[in-house]
User: Which sequence fits this backbone?
């Protein structure tokens, strides 16, 4: 069974990476690329509680709920891609189970309470610590860019040799949708995401599956769901008290009395079954049935509640229309801001697909306040919203960005362009430029050129074509801001003026 | 008597010979030559593939431009994320046919690429050029930022140097295949403007004094053959287009050795004259090509009959 478990982990991990790689242009896969998020009951409960609505895409999460009730935390042991990655990491570095901190095991339950309460009060915080969202983000914004950056480096080096150019071009064409993107992609705060994911992996050196044991709120949820679990670890009478199983247990789920198991911590990895020298350990459905007990103190539960309320209140100390006042541009098809913030789990699936198209979306830093931290915003200086593209609307697991068809998207306004006449070349130095008008994708362009006669500062008469934005036609895609040749801040910038949000 | 006869006949011969320079023997020979290789070949009224094949035939065949074992770069317009009917990129059938003709003429390899303005993958797919060129046997590739090299333009007046794509500098033959479109800044985008696709760096800066800079680029980058795709042209809202009513089905292809002359003819499709485009006028001033259409030998063929 241990072998089956390992095979299962590898299959699910490979599938996770496959969906990850396919989350790119042209997004032709029939299976939703955000499937793992859709199958995550923690994300489901949190988003639905937060926005007070049933979201149909989460039907997939019911599968794991119904699996966990009788079988326990099989997700953690057999499916979770972060868990599998941690196992592989520790296998390579030969990490041992580590010190036993039984008291620390309860921490994740308090974290779960903290997060779920936040959701009830419409402050969706799950995104920070949900393992699927977390792992996904780390891959998208830091780990994968490091990989592709490395390959691009090698490619550029080898391209200097003329005789290799043919093969390299073919290779690049083949891999352009996956590990060798055509454009160098930029992701804000790459290093920050890297530090977080590295910390989780480095904690493996303290004790195995440190994250899963002590911090993971999804594990905590599955633990609660397995209250009536019937597939359990049982030890028969001939136990020789050799201590091997307890030393081996990566979840610190075996008590001092080796016959007793903390079933809520056990992830059914079958290591103890396989390596029991006396062959007395089993995982089966036999034996007495007893519902699980959880070691939560009233005081700690109250502390969690209090912390949750304080955090929620802190996040809500905002001002009205903060996103508009601070100029955040949201993806087309985004719901109204408060709904958007309630639903967005910062999985960055939209950022991933956009990076293979216009490379417009980036994780927000603090420009929109703490509550908008890491939500996707348009960053027009380095990328723009491709006119014919609707990919970000197709990959959002919580439908914070609602699916749009191409025709609707082309009419959806996400902002408006404004020309800074003190920086714009035809305006301040009376020389033709017009790169913005050239790139404007709207048929019947949203930037028009008016030929004007002006007296230059040296006294001569000049004819110059000056750009004007046509407000009724501009959809705020940002390509003008991206392509403007002026150094520093662009001479034509997008603000969320006139944005249209999706309404049910 | 023999001496007198000899002197008479010698003088007669001498006079005849000196008079022969007034006989238009030379121009007769020239006319013969002009009939076989015109300056421009114009095909109208057919499908894109057969039309471009005809224009090359009228110019003396692809062997005139491509020799056996040559590495050819075919440079179409793949700048925009637009479909073929929107007339923003070169017609894929034209690219495909040109690639085939190069291989028929004995080319060792035909490379097809362009430095797109929208996301490269989207442009290559939407324009259908990647599919068509690959099927015709071309080596289609994306333009790599690392393969640009700062290149001096010795005859450059305003633009003295700029990063140019190395595979273009290293090839044997460059074939330029622009599509004829309206353009807000340069008025029209034709062959000279299409050369911008092999330039690196921040091309936004080229747009200031664009006409002078286009002429400078054309003084250095000299494609052996320029084929102007006017099967569909964009009459307004170029170079991106998108509105069906801006697309005109003119079913015309113009080919020629000289980029400036091809562009000069191209202006007439929009109801303009060569003198209306400053970059064409400058190109002519720099001695890059004849733009007086009356002075050019133009061979036409109409498929419509």
Assistant:
């Amino acid at each position: 069974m241990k072998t089956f478990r390992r095979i299962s982990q590898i299959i699910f991990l490979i599938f996770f990476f496959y969906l990850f790689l396919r989350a790119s242009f042209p997004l032709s896969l029939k299976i939703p690329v955000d499937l793992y998020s859709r199958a995550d009951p923690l994300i489901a409960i949190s988003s639905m509680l937060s926005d007070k609505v049933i979201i149909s895409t989460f039907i997939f999460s019911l599968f794991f709920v119904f699996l966990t009730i009788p079988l326990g935390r099989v997700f953690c042991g057999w499916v979770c891609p972060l868990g599998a990655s941690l196992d592989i990491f520790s296998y390579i570095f030969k990490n041992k189970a580590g010190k036993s901190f039984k008291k620390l095991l309860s921490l994740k339950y308090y974290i779960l309470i903290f997060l779920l309460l936040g959701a009830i009060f419409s402050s969706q915080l799950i995104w920070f610590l949900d393992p699927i969202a977390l792992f996904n983000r780390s891959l998208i914004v830091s780990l994968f860019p490091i990989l592709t950056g490395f390959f691009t480096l090698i490619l550029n080096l080898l391209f200097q040799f003329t005789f290799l150019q043919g093969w390299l071009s073919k290779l690049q064409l083949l891999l352009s949708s996956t590990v060798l993107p055509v454009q160098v992609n930029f992701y804000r705060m790459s290093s920050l995401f890297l530090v977080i994911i590295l910390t989780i992996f480095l904690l493996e050196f303290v004790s195995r599956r440190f994250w899963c044991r002590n911090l993971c709120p999804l594990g905590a949820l599955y633990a609660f769901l397995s209250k009536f679990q019937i597939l359990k670890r049982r030890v028969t009478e001939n136990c020789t008290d050799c201590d091997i199983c307890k030393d081996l247990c990566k979840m610190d789920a075996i008590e001092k009395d080796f016959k007793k198991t903390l079933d809520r911590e056990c992830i059914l990895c079958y290591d103890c079954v396989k390596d029991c020298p006396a062959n007395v350990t089993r995982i089966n459905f036999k034996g007495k049935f007893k519902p699980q007990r959880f070691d939560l103190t009233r005081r700690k539960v109250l502390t969690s509640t209090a912390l949750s309320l304080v955090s929620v209140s802190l996040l809500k100390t905002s001002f009205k229309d903060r996103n508009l006042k601070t100029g955040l541009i949201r993806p087309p098809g985004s719901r109204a801001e408060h709904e958007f913030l309630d639903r967005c789990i910062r999985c960055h699936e939209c950022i991933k697909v956009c990076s293979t198209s216009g490379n417009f979306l980036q994780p927000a830093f603090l420009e929109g306040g703490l509550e908008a931290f890491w939500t996707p915003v348009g960053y027009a200086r380095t990328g723009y919203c491709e006119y014919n593209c609707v990919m970000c609307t197709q990959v959002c697991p919580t439908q914070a960005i609602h699916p749009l068809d191409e025709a609707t998207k082309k009419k959806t306004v996400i902002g408006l362009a404004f020309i800074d006449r003190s920086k714009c070349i035809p305006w301040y130095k009376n020389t033709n430029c017009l790169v913005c008008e050239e790139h404007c994708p709207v048929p019947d362009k949203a930037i028009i050129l008016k030929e004007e006669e002006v007296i230059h500062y040296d006294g001569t008469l000049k004819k110059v074509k000056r750009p004007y934005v046509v407000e009724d036609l501009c959809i705020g895609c940002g390509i003008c801001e991206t392509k403007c040749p002026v150094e520093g801040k662009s001479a034509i910038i997008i603000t969320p003026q006139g944005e249209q949000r999706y309404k049910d | 008597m023999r001496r007198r006869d000899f002197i008479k006949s010698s003088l007669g011969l001498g006079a005849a010979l000196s008079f022969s320079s007034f006989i238009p023997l030379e121009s007769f020979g020239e006319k013969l030559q002009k009939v076989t290789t015109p300056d421009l070949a114009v095909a109208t009224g057919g499908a894109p593939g057969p039309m471009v094949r005809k224009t090359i035939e009228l110019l003396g065949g692809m062997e005139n431009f491509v020799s056996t074992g040559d590495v050819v770069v075919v440079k179409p317009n793949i700048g925009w994320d637009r479909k073929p009917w929107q007339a923003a990129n070169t017609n894929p059938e034209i690219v495909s046919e040109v690639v085939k003709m190069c291989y028929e003429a004995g080319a060792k390899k035909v490379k097809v690429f362009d430095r797109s303005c929208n996301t490269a993958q989207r442009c290559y797919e939407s324009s259908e050029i990647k599919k068509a060129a690959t099927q015709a046997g071309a080596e289609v590739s994306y333009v790599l930022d690392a393969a640009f090299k700062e290149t001096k333009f010795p005859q450059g007046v305003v633009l003295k140097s700029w990063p140019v794509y190395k595979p273009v500098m290293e090839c044997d033959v460059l074939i330029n295949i622009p599509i004829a479109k309206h353009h807000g800044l340069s008025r029209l985008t034709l062959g000279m403007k299409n050369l911008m696709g092999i330039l690196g760096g921040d091309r936004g800066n080229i747009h200031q004094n664009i006409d002078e800079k286009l002429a400078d680029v054309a003084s250095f980058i000299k494609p052996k053959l320029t084929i102007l795709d006017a099967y569909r042209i964009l009459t307004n809202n170029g170079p991106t287009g998108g509105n069906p009513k801006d697309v005109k089905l003119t079913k015309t292809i113009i080919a020629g050795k000289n980029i400036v002359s091809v562009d000069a003819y191209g202006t007439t499709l929009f109801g303009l004259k060569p003198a209306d485009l400053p970059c064409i006028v400058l190109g002519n001033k720099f001695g890059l090509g004849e733009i007086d259409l009356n002075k050019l030998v133009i061979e036409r063929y109409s498929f419509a009959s």
Notes: Residues 59 and 179 of chain B are 20 Å apart (CA to CA). The domain at 37-302 of chain B is CATH 3.40.50.11440 (Rossmann fold).
